[in-house]
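P.,

For your records, the input lines for the assembly:
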Amino acid sequence: MAGNSFGTLFRVTTSGVSHGPGYLVIIDGCPPGLPLSVDDLLPDLQRRRPGQSSLVTQRDEADLPEIWSGVFEGVTDGTPIGILFRNSDQRSRDYDDIRDKYRPGHADFTFDAKYGLRDYRGGGRSSARESIARVAAGAIAKKLLSRLGVRVLGYVVQVGPIRAEIPDPTAVTLDQVESNPVRCPDAAAAARMIDLIEQVRKERDSIGGVCELVATGVPAGWGEPVFDKLKADLAKGLLSLPAVTAFEYGAGFAVAQARGSQNNDPFVRKDGRIGTETNRHGGMLGGISSGEPILLRVAVKPTSSIPQPQRTVTRSGEPTEIVTRGRHDPCLLPRFVVMGEAMVALVLVDHYLRWKAQCGPG
Amino acid sequence: MAGNSFGTLFRVTTSGVSHGPGYLVIIDGCPPGLPLSVDDLLPDLQRRRPGQSSLVTQRDEADLPEIWSGVFEGVTDGTPIGILFRNSDQRSRDYDDIRDKYRPGHADFTFDAKYGLRDYRGGGRSSARESIARVAAGAIAKKLLSRLGVRVLGYVVQVGPIRAEIPDPTAVTLDQVESNPVRCPDAAAAARMIDLIEQVRKERDSIGGVCELVATGVPAGWGEPVFDKLKADLAKGLLSLPAVTAFEYGAGFAVAQARGSQNNDPFVRKDGRIGTETNRHGGMLGGISSGEPILLRVAVKPTSSIPQPQRTVTRSGEPTEIVTRGRHDPCLLPRFVVMGEAMVALVLVDHYLRWKAQCGPG
Amino acid sequence: MAGNSFGTLFRVTTSGVSHGPGYLVIIDGCPPGLPLSVDDLLPDLQRRRPGQSSLVTQRDEADLPEIWSGVFEGVTDGTPIGILFRNSDQRSRDYDDIRDKYRPGHADFTFDAKYGLRDYRGGGRSSARESIARVAAGAIAKKLLSRLGVRVLGYVVQVGPIRAEIPDPTAVTLDQVESNPVRCPDAAAAARMIDLIEQVRKERDSIGGVCELVATGVPAGWGEPVFDKLKADLAKGLLSLPAVTAFEYGAGFAVAQARGSQNNDPFVRKDGRIGTETNRHGGMLGGISSGEPILLRVAVKPTSSIPQPQRTVTRSGEPTEIVTRGRHDPCLLPRFVVMGEAMVALVLVDHYLRWKAQCGPG
Amino acid sequence: MAGNSFGTLFRVTTSGVSHGPGYLVIIDGCPPGLPLSVDDLLPDLQRRRPGQSSLVTQRDEADLPEIWSGVFEGVTDGTPIGILFRNSDQRSRDYDDIRDKYRPGHADFTFDAKYGLRDYRGGGRSSARESIARVAAGAIAKKLLSRLGVRVLGYVVQVGPIRAEIPDPTAVTLDQVESNPVRCPDAAAAARMIDLIEQVRKERDSIGGVCELVATGVPAGWGEPVFDKLKADLAKGLLSLPAVTAFEYGAGFAVAQARGSQNNDPFVRKDGRIGTETNRHGGMLGGISSGEPILLRVAVKPTSSIPQPQRTVTRSGEPTEIVTRGRHDPCLLPRFVVMGEAMVALVLVDHYLRWKAQCGPG
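Structure tokens returned:
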């Protein structure tokens, strides 16, 4: 109830802070019989990892998961999957600044307001390093989904004013996404994004962007029709990530300017099933998946930590300045992609199991 | 788990369909001692009511709530508040069309795909009439919030291409919102919106728009920092409403083009408390309220039911056409406002109680 | 979270008080496709009904459920089942006594302590009339279970010092149980129980007893192994009923005197499956059903309301006396049986759906 | 939903198996500001520890908790408390027997039936070593309760046929309980219990017993009146422990033989508050605490693992024999006491926070 768990039937609980011993993750509800090992988690953890390129922070974190339970003789056994990550790169440093001053754009002030105290070291519980737990859980969710023919893929479609051209979101491949450090499948746009991020870095600043996420292979029928609509849970999952400020699916904000006669997608017969001719509905109708690809976009704000002086106040309210030291990504988008994928996968697996409970066979 | 409840500590559960006897609502967790009567629910129910103007559907629904429990001698007594609404305007009609054909933009197909059958009369469980239950619960939430100095207000800021100018969202009053049938506090824009909606109606079409929602008086400290971020739960609450396709808070999608140095709001001392000079963060940092006004915007798609022929298929997949009969709003926005307010209020009350449990006095 | 819901995947939420307009029940998560009508609820509601014999209170309540949603064209449609009961027999009376004095054995004082006020009319929310909602939900759960070959049956095995002889709990039939007003399948014991209850009534007193509950046909594999053990949820479900003060399964308290070599049930091959030779484990091992019959016993205290003066205090703590007026069962056991069955059925259906989600086919 | 979490507002999630790397525990919802260190956990962990005396198993487990998060500069900071325990004493051994044969009284068969596979090493997830996680969480709950003036204490009142005399359960002290290895505050009975357990051990057998638990200082008003009655959640918490087969509170099963006129506890004025003259209601009325001491008793079955041959079957159903090797307590009761206390404390803290959310100040 204090908000450190996500999901209902595939339930992920995390604990940990960036500058303590490490993170614990418990995943409860995974069906038995899924082959699983650390190797299944490493690719996505590697994509999340800092220091992959000059575009992202150069910290060296081992990011190696230890699976402590839930897997027996190479397959999940139905008991909770316990995973831990050790924090390895905690250089001793002076935290006086962030202990006593509130960093703009960060949760320092709101943590103090809520709890009366906070672990100020590196952001404590609000550090984005917590996403390592989500990415590990998401990798398991993705593996489950892949057995059902569902694929979740994200990529960057905008950095600052630069927008990618993606003719067909469902045709984007993981290889395309991983072919450049900004994770944008439009190579020309990617090159310009990279230039922009390098320039922003030199200017000791940061820049925002937009990530698009696509889930293909989701059958019609997942999602609960009233409060737990699939679109609602996807919105929650993605907004629960740090720095996300906006969410849309299908036509998104563009519906504001649309007429019903344009916006409605005609139903047609497709490949022996019923589908829609167009997909402005982003794969969800009435909160339930339609069988068409699920299309989402989220905005990610520019990194709050920037290596230039910013005005702020101390804990007692005195005006002051702060310069965020340390290494921070000038643009969060490249590393965000895999975090977004993780949350989408977690939501989808959860709704798959909910569908199975109420509407599945048996 | 089948998604007909919302909230954790202030928990709303609804049942009912548009063409059955009516709706039941149970609100569990309301603190005792709140003066409450049907009169507290009527204003918002009236704002949600169809037939208020030529802009909205002309059905005549009584929409009178009956409070069956939870209130004793004029105040809440801590036990669950049971409310029922009777469906009064069920004209007998021919449902053959929507029984056998899938209406574009509606949940007909996805309900069939999920459950194998559906109550096809007037949308059944997916009918927007379900929002009557939410608006009633939201009115109670608002009353609780008002005792804490919190006000939630929504209004229309865009219909089709017409955008309102709102110099200061926190200065908008309920009277301004209610001063015109489109519920847009910018009178000039409102007039043009009304003209557009009338034109769209004549063209047998519908039009989308954007609703802005503002919560003032929320103290710093509400919201859980990881998965149940306040922004995440607000996104979920609003996306759980029918026709909502997009959500943003604060600077929203505009952060994609922003630099960190612009986007971060400097902390300053304000009126004896710590606040921020600007409010691009929309009143939430790290998922926790900052004490600044909470600013949200959602996109609402054009009404799917339009009185012109649309291409679709039958349940068996045969191509056909459908004309949605009945009275439907050509633009959902005017009536949406109070539904959006309800969801925001429900989320805020829930997080207030969660704050109280973990961090409150005692 | 205020405790008016039960279950996770088959979730029952109730509201209502004994002397308001009535009770609302919402059952969320029922699989679609179950044939269901009011007729399916009536037999159990009739068994719960007051006034069936001289052994139970003579109030006349209609107890007729109205199904408002969740059933379409005779079968459940996967949306929440809304049921309401009207309170019909609210004779106008003088509540001054119970408004100002605390009835011994009742919740009057604790409600005041918790909420600061209470609906004192007839017990308000703590009235056992709330069980009407549970019995209705339980009847639906039983119908679902019966399709899986599971039967739940309860009966009285003790009233005061009189104990029934039940050679084989799994051989008891509903007809045997219903063959006498005390619902004890041992006819000789039943006769003596009836005499005792009549005598107790004449003495203006009440008497306690024990109810045994048997679930047959439960396959091996239901129940979660750690906190949500099947035995734990059954204990909770039954202890959530008013007047229940003790629970045991299988050998129960007798294990205290047993040796492991006696108490362990040897595994054997039975009818093509693996089972146990004896059933001291009451059908559950490690919190999971074993495939053997589930055997439970609960103690039910003597009715707290007795028509003789009892010492107590007023709300302000002044010593006084109270005589509980109105009609009350001198022994709760005969009507308790169906309430116990309902809770057992609700727990079993919930764990069936949980099994299906994690371990079921697909 | 797979049952590895307990509680709602003070929520404990555990993972781990007896013969893997160790156990993870995440405690979510602890209020900030509680001084906490490993030293607060050690006394109860020591009481749970195997090898304390000849009465309990002689394994050597370190049982040292590592607190990984949730405590900052010596006090809880409101973020989830992550704790891990390493498994240190995993002697390499031959598990062929328990891999292929079902141990009577254990969960081997039911795990296989549920999941299709199981970690057979030392009981896997069903090992009672999981209680180490509960005891650690319980120690934190107890510390929170002690600040509210609430004390939870358990002790052994029966082993086999030997029953202790406890004139006043609320007068028993921790020192008395800890003064002998069987944890029975009646020294004479304790001596006989010890003799019996030694004799049972020599006979290669095991013996059951009864544990009594007392919570003093609980104010009137904790507990939810309908499904989440305090008595119901206590029953669930205690029945969720391995080997517990029965639960009663207050007069318990003895109510079956009682008359209402005897069983009702008269209300009286006591020390400036309203209380009851007697406490047959065990401190709970209508599911809510009354302010009187909470009195509970649970039965614990004889250890299923006994070092003598028992009849059973193989996984394929072939009749065979099994001798449980390894060191096992001949009587679980002495080590059970602290596990029972932990569950009672967890339930009480949870209901305290629930009371605070709905009915507390603010």
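Two observations worth noting. The radius of gyration of chain D is 21 Å. The longest strand of chain D covers residues 151-159.

Regards
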